[in-house]
Amino acid sequence: MSNKKEIIIKATKLKKSFITGDTEQTIFENLDLNIYRGDFTVIMGSSGAGKSTLMYSLSGMDRPSSGEVVWNDKTITSLSDDRLAIFRRKNCGFVFQQIYLLDKMSLMDNVLTASALSGASKKDSVKYAKELFELVNIPEITRKKFPSQVSGGEAQRAGIVRAVINKPEILFADEPTGALNSNNSTAVLDVFTKLHNDGQSIILVTHDKKTALRGNRVLYVKDGMIYGECDLGVYTNESKDREAKLNNFLTEMGW
Ligand SMILES: Nc1ncnc2c1ncn2[C@@H]1O[C@H](COP(=O)(O)OP(=O)(O)OP(=O)(O)O)[C@@H](O)[C@H]1O
């Protein structure tokens, strides 16, 4: 049997620059990158290095200035805005540091609203939502609460349920534990680990080493390119070996 990993995203010669006033700032240029199915890919790098910008280009949330992003056989960089929005809705789940749940709806209704937009049947969605709420450890009583009535960790876990309810090909996360305390953070990271163990492909941007340890592949963005990458192997627990490997890698990268 071949161990060759299947590519989901192939990015070629990506360039992204922003023009502010009369100054052009190039964030990355000539960047080539493959993202593989089933990987938990972590993007690290110093503040302002372009981690989020890269994630936005890969997911179609933003367009690169030039270059190509191909998902399976679909070149998303040449889709119209409308088609790109449909593509994203179908293929991407997003989790951010800020949790954008709708305040006037229960956690369950927030999730069901997201699945209704995808055209899934209500019965199937309710069944799957219940499974996911179990997975993220949110009991039935809490699912009926409004976002203002739950903890930050519970709200973020519900946000993750909403992000994966439509079975996205890739779950994208940008500092998903950035606003959480240590216990809530661990509970959220445990959800990412469970999803990854169930086969979910994940791309996550973080500054945090503890978070990065949950991934199996760490990319380091620096000087407008993927400066280095580290194969951490699959997370089982925060073993000293993986931690040492990540520490050495980050030192090499100039972290
Ligand atoms: N819409 C925009 N207009 C102009 N400049 C932008 C825009 N978005 C990002 N930038 C610039 O691009 C650079 C990279 O930003 P980005 O948010 O990708 O960095 P990052 O590595 O994720 O940083 P951090 O870790 O601090 O969140 C920054 O210098 C930022 O100011």
Describe the structure.
This protein has helices spanning 51-59, 81-91, 107-118, 122-135, 140-143, 152-164, 182-197, 209-212, 240-253, and strands spanning 7-20, 23-36, 40-44, 66-71, 74-75, 92-96, 170-174, 201-205, 217-222, 225-231. The longest helix has 16 residues, at 182-197. Helix 3 crosses helix 4 and helix 6 (152-164) packs parallel to helix 7. By secondary structure, the protein is α/β, with parallel strands linked by helices. It has one domain (7-253): 3-Layer(aba) Sandwich (Rossmann fold), CATH 3.40.50. It is 38% helix and 27% strand. Residues 9-248 form the ABC transporter domain. Keywords: ATP-binding, Nucleotide-binding, Transport. It comes from Blautia caecimuris. Pfam families: ABC_tran (PF00005).
Strand content: 25-35%
Query: Roughly what is the average pLDDT, rounded to an integer?
Result: 93
Number of DSSP helices? 9
Shape, principal axes of CA atoms = globular
Please write the CATH class name. Answer: Alpha Beta
Q: How many beta-strand segments?
A: 10
Helical/strand content category: alpha/beta
Number of domains: 1
CATH architecture: 3-Layer(aba) Sandwich
What is the third-level CATH name, the topology?
Answer: Rossmann fold
Ligand catalogue: adenosine-5'-triphosphate
Query: Fraction of residues in helices?
Result: 25-40%
CATH superfamily: P-loop containing nucleotide triphosphate hydrolases
Q: Whole-Å distance between the termini?
A: 38 Å
Largest sheet: 6 strands, mixed
Q: pLDDT under 50 segments (min length 5)? A: none
Output the helix-strand order: EEEHEEHEHHHHEHEHEEH
Q: Going across the major beta sheet, what is the strand order?
A: 6-7-8-3-9-10
Radius of gyration: 18 Å
